[in-house]
Amino acid sequence: EKHHLQNPRRYRWYQRRVRGANLHRPLMSFIMGAMPEQQEEMSVGVDDVVKMRENILAVEKSEKGAEKLLRYYLQMTAMDCKLPINENQIHVTFTWYDSFYKDSVFSGKRGSAATSLFERSCVLFNYAAVSSQVAASQNLDTDDGLKTAAKYFQVASGAFSHLQNSLVPLMQKVPTPDLSMEVVTSLSLLMQAQAQECLFIKTVADKMKAKVTCRLAASATDFYGDAYKEMSSVNLKGTNWDKLTAICLAKQNYMAGLTEYHESLSAQASKAIGVELGRLQNAEKLLADAVKQSAGCFECKDIHSKVIRALTAAKKDNDLIYHERIPNGSELPPVSRAPMSKPTPVATEVEGWSDVFSKIVPLNVQQAATVYASRKDHLIHMEISRLREATNQLNSVMNQMNLPAAIEDLGGKEIPASLIEKCGDVRTKGGLMSLRQSFDDLPQLLLRNEEIITETLKALNAEEASDKHLRAHLVLNGTELKVKT
Length: 485
Prior knowledge:
mainly alpha; 13 helices; 2 strands
């Protein structure tokens, strides 16, 4: 199937042009203020960052160029939590031009922002663009070329997808149109579709079964369809976006036509002549649309001509020999899918790269340590206050008990003199027998005391009753009660 290996046009994306930015002075000013003891050591890292940025100002369209962009992107990402570049802390204004206006620096739309987020987004955009350029420059007539193209289209898709999911949503305002959510989503899908097409071409080159190739082609059709749907929602006047959208639609019809053509080959192998004719008719219509829509941007006339020849021959055989009914398009069974291409996640490390500011503790960690120290001091102060309060309370109680002055401590070797004196008094007054007799008399004494108290209460109650009676009697007789003092 040589017609599939004629390097149909693949679409790369243009890089964003960039202006120089003064990184050295703002970074060093922040380091001198925040960590003066590390000034000399960090100045080497600042020089490295400045050099990295200079290397990506006019990067070559190659794998090495993509690696330079990725290295600088990873460094800026690693710096973000340590040396915050924004309006309020490290103020550096980054200026980039929109990739849609590539012809002249003066005609392009320019976006500027003093944030690391904008810089990282633009660098990652260029990384995706260069990756797509590397993929588009491959020779699809070779096995290595197909593998490399599929690899870098998926890398580009992953970079655009990362922009879509992780960076663009964080922007309060998108400085240039090519960083809008709709554009980066469209580009991610377009790169994924082209990677799937490369995988399809490889299966054809490897002469795999028609069932395998048509499944890959069907998935490529879906990817191009998704990309076309997303691209149609973008309105970019004065650019080539509308032309690219039309070509994406042509690619969708082109891959759909190839899907039907390879399904016809599978039907031919199983002697299903009616199904073969139905597939060929669908393929001819789809490829005819692709020829019109492509406007010569990629080669699809040869395969269209081949499908017409195959359709003519199949019709002739069916009219003369088989006389099978040709099913309508809706009657044909749906084609299975095999989506093999996937966005490759952005790498988190590159050979030979390490964070030049690895010794700097991230700001969030420093802030957490400060909060911890403050909280720790607060808790210690509270515990010390509680300890002092308890100590004062204990001292007060001990003073009331005349402690420790009341305790005669002789180290456990002698009996205190006061205790010997008190023991002598007890012996003089009868000793142990007298104490026991006193304890034995206590119950009787208790009963006698209770009887005395009871008799006293009765006498008091009787006196109170008599007093109340006399008072009431005197009031009834009109006699004024006077108490002489």
